[in-house]
Design a protein that fits this description.
The chain is of the alpha/beta class. It is built from seven helices and five strands; from the N terminus they run E-H-E-H-E-H-H-E-H-H-E-H. A five-stranded parallel sheet has the order 2-3-1-4-5, with helices on both faces. Strand 2, helix 2 and strand 3 form a beta-alpha-beta unit.
Length: 190
């Protein structure tokens, strides 16, 4: 599963709660699956910096997104697919959807159509959980994004190409949300 939403909406908190409550093997992925290292069992606190456009060239962005495509598939085949075969719950923060919603934060300055195409051919999570909250609530938690950026990200995340998109209220207690997600995904394969 992938958890998506703006910074401050509670993705890492929900990921930690899901992993804590899940009875079985778990793994966590932040943005892209690792190839050389193992999948960590849960999220670690990573300080967020300001979200500004770093600039860059279109060619460098296009090369970067194709490199990401290769890295996603390699990490998926080497780390995630075996974990799924063992029955592990794999929780990803954002997955590749950042290329569609915050491409500049990933150094991608290429055309939007290419990002949509590349994201469609990356391995897709079975379930994507979109955490939504009022803009003022998100701004209270983290101030890296403006109110306009948060509004645009919420709109963009609601239209990502997902097999199954669950929209949940991020203002609920993380334990309640985790239980709701676990109940919802228990029927995802049926």
């Amino acid at each position: 599963m992938a958890l998506v939403g703006p910074d401050g909406v509670g993705k890492s908190t929900l990921a930690a709660e899901l992993i804590r409550r899940y009875e079985g093997c778990t793994a966590y992925v932040h943005f892209r699956p690792p190839f050389w290292s193992y999948l960590p069992p849960g999220p670690s606190e990573v300080p967020a910096g300001p979200k500004t456009d770093p600039g860059g060239s279109v060619l460098r962005g296009v090369l970067r997104i194709f490199k990401s495509l290769l890295v996603f598939w390699a990490g998926y085949l080497r780390r995630i697919r075996p974990a799924l075969r063992r029955g592990c719950l794999v929780v990803a923060d954002r997955w590749a959807y950042g290329y569609l919603v915050q491409p500049w934060s990933l150094g991608y300055d290429g055309p939007a159509w290419l990002a949509r195409l590349v994201v469609r051919v990356m391995p897709a999570p079975e379930v994507v959980v979109l955490l939504e909250a009022p803009v003022d609530v998100i701004l209270e938690r983290k101030t890296e994004l403006s109110a306009d950026q948060i509004t645009e990200e919420l709109r963009s995340y609601s239209s990502i190409p997902a097999r199954r998109l669950l929209r949940l209220d991020a203002t609920l207690d993380p334990g309640v949300l985790a239980q709701e997600v676990l109940v919802l995904i228990s029927g995802a394969g049926s």
